[in-house]
TrEMBL record:
Subunit structure: Component of the GSE complex.
N-terminal signal peptide: none
Record family assignment: Belongs to the GTR/RAG GTP-binding protein family.
Name of this protein: GTP-binding protein
CDD domains referenced in this protein's UniProt entry, alphabetically: RagA_like
Cellular component annotations (GO), alphabetically ordered: fungal-type vacuole membrane; Gtr1-Gtr2 GTPase complex; nucleus
Source taxonomy: Eukaryota, Fungi, Fungi incertae sedis, Mucoromycota, Mucoromycotina
MF annotations from Gene Ontology: GTP binding; GTPase activity
Keywords: GTP-binding, Nucleotide-binding
UniProt keyword Nucleotide-binding, yes or no: yes
Main function: GTPase involved in activation of the TORC1 signaling pathway, which promotes growth and represses autophagy in nutrient-rich conditions.
SUPFAM superfamilies from the UniProt entry: P-loop containing nucleoside triphosphate hydrolases
One example of a Gene Ontology biological process annotation: positive regulation of TORC1 signaling
Amino acid sequence: MSTGRVSTGLQFIGSPKQVGQKASLKGFQRFLSSEFRPSPKSIIMKKKVLLMGKSGSGKTSMRSIIFSNYIARDTRRLGATIDVEHSNLKFLGNLTLNLWDCGGQEAFMENYFTSQRDHIFKNVEVLIYVFDVESRDVERDMHYYQSCLEAIMANSREAKIFCLVHKMDLVQEHQRDRMYEERVNELKTRSEPLKIKTFRTSIWDETLYAAWSTIVHALIPNIRTLESHLNNFCSICDADEVVLFERSTFLVIANAARINHVDAHRFEKISNIIKQFNLGCRQVSNRS
Ligand SMILES: Nc1nc2c(ncn2[C@@H]2O[C@H](COP(=O)(O)OP(=O)(O)OP(=O)(O)O)[C@@H](O)[C@H]2O)c(=O)[nH]1
Ligand SMILES: [Mg+2]
């Protein structure tokens, strides 16, 4: 991913009507550039994000789709992750996600909780735990999840915890709500006293983007200031809605709306369309 200013991620939805909108756009871009400009190495904010869950639950697949432009069907070729794969993903100028994709085979998991315990679980800002909804051994999954929470409580008490009930596409449509609700109730009970946020996800639809947008949103330190500027910008422009996307991943960073929109998944759909368009352009330019 490229280091970047977010200005190119600014998109209009609806039609801004005021004559002064161009000036407002410049003003807002100036704000973004000053808040998120690439900084000297010493003040780069590095946030450690652990991605955990049993082998085959889909961790590397989601990472590859969100951050490396994979399409869903390419993930079938991925091999199991050996130990931990680290990646540093630069966001909004001076924010770096230090993502630890932890291979979920049992031998690795046992090591994380014993010899590598401090190394893995200290200074964690976010834990993302991925559950395969079709898993045959839910008890075992829960056992590892709870070991993980214990280690987090001991080493990174303030970490935010997100649980993804993943591969929802494999569940019949009419059973999805019930199945998800059951899993969430169980997860909440097993996580006490820690608070968790849960999502139902699949690499085959927009739910993955929605979940990761929320996760990234939780990591941005000055998000409230950004949202308030975005709201001002939206009303000065008389726009129906302004959506701020991160320019490499097209995850939604923030939005400001002045009318109600019925489609709750519009951001992920836009992200998807633009991402596919970018991929198409890249393929064409590689060919020529
Ligand atoms: N149907 C379906 N399959 C998925 C989904 N996400 C991932 N997969 C498939 O699950 C398989 C395993 O995915 P990986 O991403 O390698 O799993 P992992 O969690 O990284 O596994 P380890 O590296 O061994 O811990 C791949 O064949 C993916 O195509 C999903 O949402 N739905
Ligand atoms: Mg993997």
